[in-house]
Each structure stands twice: as C-alpha cells, then as structure tokens.
C-alpha cells in the first residue's frame, strides 16, 4: 500500500530510504465505503490524502443546488481541500467516495513535522502544488475557451479509465453541463463515427 505512495513521491523528488520510510510512516490508512464522505461542507479539512484504491469526487453545491465537480481523484492521486486545510477554515467542498476506496492521510501537524525534520518534503509539496496550479489554470482556460463537446472528447481521451467508472451525471457535473446536454454530445459523436 505504501509502495504506491513511495512510487508517487519518487516521481517528484529523491529521498534516501530512511527518509522515505520516516515520511511514509506519518500517513494513516483509512478505508472509505462507497457514498461515504471523507469531508463534508462546513467541516475543517484536517488532512491531505493519497488515494491508494478507489475513486473520489471533490465537489461544491452552488446556491441553486447544482453540483459542480472540481476534480476526480483515483489511484495515485492526492486529495484535499487545500483552502480549508491550510487556513483552518470550514470547507466549501464535499469529498465523497464513488467506489469503496482506500486512502493514506497525513495531518497538518505531521506534515509540518516533515517540513522541519525532512527538508526535502517541502520541495515535494511545492512541486505538487505547482503541478496542481498548472492543471487548474488549464482547466479554467478550457472551460472558458472550448466547447462542451471538445472538453468531453479531451476528458475521454485523457482519462479513458474514468469514463467506465463514472455516471453520466458525474461527467456532466465535471464538465459544467446538464446530463441531457452530455447525452446529446454523445449521440452527435456516435453519429460522426
């Protein structure tokens, strides 16, 4: 289980074996059943998590009751509400398991401990934060400049493994469109083939 975490860390930074072991031992294992919440709106997020198995959706519900999915987190992805975690403020987000899932969680206290005692860890989180900012910036630009059909096609191409694991409603909420509009897009695409 921690082997996947070690592989993920090694993609970003190099750690000595003892550093890797010490850092990975700061994480706590948690099993989450399908449709259970890792975080609910108005709770303070007390963790950053690494998904070992399963699938989560991170979403917000707007004032009209419409669900807006920020992102999906599946195996080998990190998950948190960074605003709530960093600023100790109530979350505006829900983090819900779409499938039975397993995560490794690190607390703020243990993360700070790692920053002080394992200086390379600060670089790890800096690199990951930069990559997250790039991905969010690209998603914002795509949402502003690309049609829903193009966004759907690119999502399908980039995450083919997710298409089978997600409902049409979840994909539509991620793309910012209605389920009916997504069905129309899929019909249009199938007619082109």
Automatic annotation (TrEMBL):
SUPFAM superfamilies: cAMP-binding domain-like. It comes from the Bacteria. Residues 30-110 form the Cyclic nucleotide-binding domain. Coiled coil: none annotated. Pfam families: cNMP_binding. This is Crp/Fnr family transcriptional regulator. The lineage of its organism: Bacteria, Pseudomonadati, Bacteroidota, Cytophagia, Cytophagales.
């Amino acid at each position: 289980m921690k082997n996947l975490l070690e592989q993920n860390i090694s993609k970003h930074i190099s750690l000595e074996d003892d550093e890797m072991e010490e850092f990975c031992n700061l994480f706590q294992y948690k099993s989450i059943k399908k449709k259970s919440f890792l975080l609910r709106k108005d709770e303070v997020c007390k963790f950053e998590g690494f998904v070992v198995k399963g699938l989560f959706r991170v979403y917000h519900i707007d004032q009209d009751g419409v669900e807006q999915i920020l992102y999906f987190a599946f195996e080998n992805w990190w998950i948190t509400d960074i605003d709530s975690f960093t600023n100790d403020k109530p979350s505006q987000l829900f983090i819900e398991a779409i499938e039975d899932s397993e995560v490794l969680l690190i607390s703020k206290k243990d993360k700070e401990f790692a920053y002080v005692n394992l200086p390379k860890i600060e670089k790890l989180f800096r690199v990951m934060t930069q990559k997250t900012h790039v991905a969010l910036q690209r998603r914002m630009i795509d949402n502003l400049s690309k049609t829903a059909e193009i966004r759907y096609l690119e999502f399908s191409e980039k995450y083919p493994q997710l298409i089978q694991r997600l409902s049409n409603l979840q994909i539509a909420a991620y793309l910012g469109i209605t389920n009916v509009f997504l069905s129309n897009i899929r019909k249009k695409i199938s007619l082109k083939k």
